[in-house]
Amino acid sequence: MKTELPSTRSLYVGLTEVADDASISSRKWIGLLFSGGAIVASILDYNPTILLERVPGIIDWLEDIVFTELLFVAAALLLYQVLGVTLQP
Questions:
Q1: Higher per-residue pLDDT: 32 or 47
Q2: 3-state secondary structure of 52
Q3: 60 within 8 A of 51, measured Cβ to Cβ
Q4: Rounded to whole angstroms, how far apart are CA atoms 85 and 6?
Q5: Do the Cβ atoms of 75 and 36 come closer than 8 Å?
Q6: Which entry of 23, 25, 48, 73 is 20 to 30 Å from 31 by CA?
Q7: Distance between CA atoms of 25 and 81, rounded to whole angstroms?
């Protein structure tokens, strides 16, 4: 199994550079799009291909589920930010 570390690193560096030059409202959109892309990659690529090649144990499955759920939470919170909705206790 090969790793894509250099391309992943360049993706993060590129997104950091774009977010650094962007306004606050643009940063919310960039984060929302990145979260959505990470969710799609996790569901459509990581789960059916990479995870199954590793012959996962229970900890691997739980870690993957928790990671994907946290991506959904981050995307939901960023969507609230983009829409201007505030959460109140």
A1: 32
A2: helix
A3: yes
A4: 37
A5: yes
A6: 48
A7: 9
